[in-house]
Amino acid sequence: MTETTPELACPIAPVVDIVFSRWTTPILWALKEFGRQRFVELERRIATITPKVLTQRLRQLERDGLVVRTYHAEVPPRVEYEISELGRSLGPLFASLSEWSGNLGKVEAARQAYDERGSAR
């Protein structure tokens, strides 16, 4: 019997791992919607993220090529982040997900129906 890796079983699994890991979507969304931003601006826009986690996610997104970090050698130094062209290419995916979010009411109704059936078991 041959083992199947998740990537072979589902070819979009690696994409999901990159794009939908926790905090990636809010960071990319903020950069797409509001343009180039400094760290503190992103931190304010994504109020529930810690500075440590934001730093880690920005580094990973830069490594993945989805975010561009620009260092300005000024006094004091200034660092800005912006979404890359590769990151922008996710726009249609985000638009589709935004459109699909209209179904969240149906998901909540299905959950409630399931939970009610579960209590009768």
TrEMBL record:
Keywords: DNA-binding, Transcription, Transcription regulation. Coiled coil: none annotated. InterPro entries: HTH_HxlR (IPR002577), WH-like_DNA-bd_sf (IPR036388), WH_DNA-bd_sf (IPR036390). Residues 10-109 form the HTH hxlR-type domain. The keyword Disulfide bond does not apply. GO terms for molecular function: DNA binding. The keyword Acetylation does not apply. This is HxlR family transcriptional regulator. It comes from Amycolatopsis rifamycinica. The lineage of its organism: Bacteria, Bacillati, Actinomycetota, Actinomycetes, Pseudonocardiales.
